[in-house]
Amino acid sequence: MSKAELPSRPNPDFPDVRDLRCEDLHAYLQEHGSEKIALIDVRQPEEYVGDLGHVPDAELWVLGTLPDRIDELPRDRDVVFICRSGGRSAQAAAYVQHFEFQRCFNLQGGMIRWNNLGYPTEKGPA
Length: 126
Known about the structure:
By secondary structure, the protein is an alpha/beta fold.
């Protein structure tokens, strides 16, 4: 699966947002690693290090800070936004669409689904 082949589907609540299944992200990371993809966790710091942990190599960007950090988002890589269940990350993906980011995704089901599938997590500080 190459970068261009990240399978996605429309988000039911945000028409311009593409959802990426946890299974597909995990398969991509297993095959390619995280060097060519930006993983952005938009939860609060206590959630990022809490019981659900975070996807390895995900950066913590609290959702409310996204407008101030928009220029830091890479335009040369796919961006996957992650949260607890997929709501805040879908909001983040919808927001960046206004800045013409073409390859942004919402992790469908968020860290709840990621954990339910038994995928690896980290729980250390950001």
